[in-house]
Amino acid sequence: SDDTVTAIYEDKDGVLWVGTANGGLNRLRDKRFVSYTTKQGLFSDEIFSIEDDDEGWLWMSCSRGVFRVRKRDLDDYDAGRAKWISCIAYGKTDGMESPQCNGAGKPAVWKSRDGRLWFPTSKGVVSVDPRTMKVDHVPPSVYVDQVLVDQRPLALHGAGNDAPVHIPPGRGELEIRYTAISLSAAEKVRFKYKLEGIDANWLDAGGRRAAYYNNIPPGPYKFRVIACNKDGIWNEIGASLPFELEPHYWQTLWFRGLMVLLVVGGASGTALYATRRKMQRQLQALQQRHAIEKERGRIAKDIHDDLGSSLTRIMMLGERVEEELGKQKDVAPHISKIVSSARHTVQSLDEIVWAVNPENDTLNGLLEYIGHYADEFFENTSVNCRLELPVELPAFNLAAETRHNLFLVVKEALNNALKHSGATEVRVEVTVEKGQVQIRVEDNGCGFDMSNEAAHRGNGLDNMRKRIESLGGQFEIVSAPQQGTSLKTVLKLNAGQTRAMI
Fold first, then answer.
1. For residues 465 and 476, is the Cβ–Cβ distance under 8 A?
2. Which helix (H) or strand (E) holds 9?
3. If you compute the radius of gyration of the chain from its CA atoms, what whole number of angstroms results?
4. Are 144 and 241 spatial neighbours (Cβ–Cβ below 8 Å)?
5. Would you list the DSSP string of 448-496?
6. Which of 77, 191, 463, 494 is most deeply buried (CB count within 10 A of its CB)?
C-alpha cells in the first residue's frame, strides 16, 4: 500500500507483516499482499513497529500512541464475516507520559523473555504486559441526543420508534448529535454513522459526536450510528432515527407536474401558433401566386384574342392586296414589307403568349414548344432539322423566366446555324438524367475559329452564356473551321433520371 516501509515482522506461522509510513498495515501470505488502513478501521496508517504477543494480538506503535489488533479480526474481515476492523489504542489516559513513539531507530519495539513489550517514546520507555490486559466485552449504549435543522433544535417526539420525524421545509442543513454511555474510558469511545439515502458506506467519526449534512433534498431518510468501547467492542445495533424532510411547494410532485404541463402547453401553443402563422403565410403566398397566374392567363388571353387577331387580319389583308397589286411595282414592295412585318409580329406575339401563359410552366411544355418552333423555323429551307427529344419526362415545373431564357438560347442557336453556318443539317438533342436537363444544338456547317474574338462575339454567344449562367447552369460551345459547331447547356433539376430518344 506504500513504498516507504517502516516495520517488518514475521510471525510463527510464516506470515510477513509490513508496516508503512502512510499506507497502513500489509500482510504477505500465500504470495499475496493484503492491506489494512484507517478506512477499514485501523487506528493509524502510520506504523513504526510491529510485534506479536502470545494472545493472538498484533501490537503496533505510531506517533499517536500504541495500538493493537486481533489477527482473528483481520481474518474475519478478509473472509467477509466482519465489516470493519476493531483496534484498541493506548495513550496518555492509559499511563503513557507521551503518546509520541519513536520509529526512526530500530528496534522500535522489543519483546522480553517474560512476554512484556517495550516501546520507546519521546519521554522514555513504556512497558506493556499483554497477559494483564483485560478486555471490556460490554459495548456502549448509543443514543441520538439532538437534531438541529437549519441551526434550530428540533423536538424529537417519538424518536427511536419506527414512525419518522417530520422536518419542515428549509435549507436542508442538518446537525445530528449523538452520544454513547461507557463506564470505563468514555473518552475512548469511537463512532461510525451513516445516513441511508445519502451515504453509501459507514463514515468513521472517531470520537466526534456530531454528524453534519448540507443541502439535503426532500425525502425519507434514516440516520444510524454505532459505537465501540475502548477495547474495540462494537455495538453494531446502535441507534437510529428515521425522519422525513418535507419539500417546499416548488419541490413537490404536483408543482413539478404543473410546471411540466405549463412548459409543454406553452411549447405546444408556441409551436401551434408558429405553425398557424406559417400556414397562413403559405396560404397567402399560394393565393398571391394564384392571383399572379390568373392575371398572367388573362394577359395571355387578351393579347392572343385582341392583338393577335388584329395582326392576323392585317397580315391577311396585306396578302390579298399584294395579290391584286402584284403588277404595280411601286406598291408591291411596301405591301410585302407589311406582310413580312405582320408575320414576324404574329410570331413574336405567339412567343410572348407562350412565355406568359402559366399552363406552359413545365419542362414538357418547353420541349414541345422547342420542337414546334424548330419545325416551323427550318420549313421551306435547305437545312434538314433533326429533333431528338425524350418521350417521357419527369413532372417538373419551370419558372417562366427559366423557361423563356432556355428557349431564347435555343432560338439564337438555331438562328445562327441557319444564317451563318451554311449547314445542311442541324440536330437538337435533349437529355434528362441524373437530375439535369441537357440541351445540345449541333450543325455540320463551316464552324469558326474559337480563338478569333470577333467571330466569337459576332453571334451573340456572350448573351447566351450569360442567360444560362444566370440560371445557375453551364454553357459550353465547341467549334472549329469546317468542323461544324456544337452548343451545349446543362441545368440542374430535382427530378429522377429519364432518357428516351425519337
1. no
2. strand 5-10
3. 53
4. yes
5. --TT-HHHHHHTTHHHHHHHHHHTT-EEEEEE-TTS-EEEEEEEE-SS-
6. 191
| Residue indicated by cell numbers 519521546 | 122
List the grid coordinates of 207.
470520537
Give the confidence band of 163 by pLDDT, cuts at 50, 70, 90. Answer: confident
**Within 10 Å of residue 451's Cβ, how many Cβ atoms?**
7
DSSP 8-state secondary structure symbol assigned to residue 442: E
pLDDT in tens, 250-269: 767 777 888 888 899 889 88
**Residue 355: Cβ within 10 Å count:** 19
**Cβ atoms of 169 and 247 closer than 8 Å:** yes
The model's confidence at residue 465, banded by pLDDT at 50, 70 and 90, is confident
Q: How many CB atoms lie within 10 A of CB 31?
A: 5
> Which neighbouring-strand residues pair with 437?
432, 491
Cα 114 versus chain centre, distance: 74
Question: CA 427 to CA 502: how far, in whole Å?
Answer: 12
C-alpha cell at 355: 412565355
Interstrand relation of 32-36 and 25-29 (parallel, antiparallel or unpaired): antiparallel
Look up residue 37 and give its three cell numbers. 488502513
Q: Calculate the average pLDDT of the chain.
A: 83
Residue 217 is classified by DSSP as P
Q: What pTM value is reported for the model?
A: 0.44
**What's the start-to-end Cα distance of the chain, in Å?**
90
- Contact yes or no for 25/6 (Cβ under 8 A): no
Question: Cα–Cα distances in Å, from 153 out to 149, 157, 167?
Answer: 6, 12, 11
Residue type at position 19: G
Angle in degrees, CA 173, 182, 226, rounded to 5: 40
